[in-house]
Design the sequence.
């Protein structure tokens, strides 16, 4: 169907591009009768382009491309793009913007790669914050490119400190067996559920009983990344009785404290007591590391491990073409079994 006059259009550009569809509107006419276009943005698909054009027509982005400052671009990005990101990602990027304060009044198109790099090198923080600043520049650059504010992304040239090798070791078989021997004691079951499900602490504590299907034998939850959100994790046969007991207690959440959702700070207090009494090294996140290590040692398929962990597969073939069924995930999980000493 033809768009109404003045609505705008979505057209495909030639060549091999990541975002081959250009979204544009006629802003006026030249003396020779040729149209003057406003570039609204670029999209990967025609459908995405039509959505962007509809959003623009509902709320036009009045951007003076030559003069828009870093602060103005960030504010517009926060309004238009940030809501599509996860809450933790938004918070990380917003916090990273504080380290760019020295450039906020500069026209964005005048900011060079070395100035962006200085915000990373001079932040005085570790690899995590540096990576967040680098990530923010990437988001802003791509948004500026969509708005036709810039013609290239300097953020592609940025570097940050690499992630250091992890110092977290998986929990030993001795520690796991010690937990099983004390599994009837308060809160020990929560550690074993961590170990045999691989949830992050925020994910397990946020797991609602409504998202647990005992008949199907699954738990649905997850946060942080697109691959990690709303993922299905089968309930391992070893921890099913513990999950059933928790479910039988009633309440909105699987892991509760005094009838309410258990906060991370409260759980860490509980963990500290268990760690001291049962000699459990590390932090709750070590359980997630243990889960992945046990799956790998048991010979589970890498794609299944990535799906259970909520990771994006690093192998393109696996990421795009390899689809695993729930039965396959259950089979991979059940490869991990208790190993009494």
Sequence:
């Amino acid at each position: 169907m033809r768009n109404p006059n003045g609505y705008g259009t979505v057209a495909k550009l030639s060549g091999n591009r990541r975002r081959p569809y250009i979204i544009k509107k006629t802003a006026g006419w030249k003396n020779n009768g040729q149209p003057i276009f406003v570039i609204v943005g670029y999209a990967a698909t025609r459908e995405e382009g039509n959505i962007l054009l509809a959003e623009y027509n509902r709320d036009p982005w009045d951007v003076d491309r030559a003069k828009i400052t870093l602060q103005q671009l960030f504010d517009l990005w926060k309004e238009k793009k940030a809501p599509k990101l996860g809450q933790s990602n938004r918070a990380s990027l917003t916090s990273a913007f504080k380290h760019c304060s020295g450039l906020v009044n500069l026209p964005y198109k005048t900011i060079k790669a070395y100035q962006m790099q200085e915000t990373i090198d001079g932040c005085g923080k570790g690899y995590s914050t540096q990576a967040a600043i680098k990530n923010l520049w990437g988001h802003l650059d791509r948004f500026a490119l969509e708005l036709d504010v810039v013609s290239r992304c300097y953020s592609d040239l940025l570097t940050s400190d690499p992630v250091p090798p992890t110092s977290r070791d998986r929990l030993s078989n001795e520690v796991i067996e010690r937990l099983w021997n004390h599994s009837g004691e308060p809160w020990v079951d929560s550690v074993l559920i961590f170990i045999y499900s691989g949830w992050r602490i925020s994910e397990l504590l946020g797991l609602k009983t409504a998202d647990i299907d005992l008949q199907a034998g699954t738990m649905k939850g997850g946060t942080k990344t697109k691959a990690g959100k709303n993922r299905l994790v089968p309930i391992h046969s070893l921890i099913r009785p513990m999950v059933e007991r928790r479910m039988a207690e009633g309440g909105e959440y699987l892991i509760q404290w005094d009838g309410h959702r258990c906060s991370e700070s409260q759980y860490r207090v509980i963990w500290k007591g268990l760690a001291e009494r049962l000699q459990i090294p590390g932090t709750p996140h070590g359980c997630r590391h243990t889960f992945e290590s046990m799956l790998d040692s048991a010979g589970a398929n890498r794609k299944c491990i990535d799906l259970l962990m909520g990771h994006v597969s690093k192998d393109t073939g696996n990421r795009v073409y390899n689809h695993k069924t729930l039965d396959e995930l259950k089979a991979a999980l059940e490869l991990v079994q208790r190993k009494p000493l």
Summary: The chain has 14 helices and eight strands.
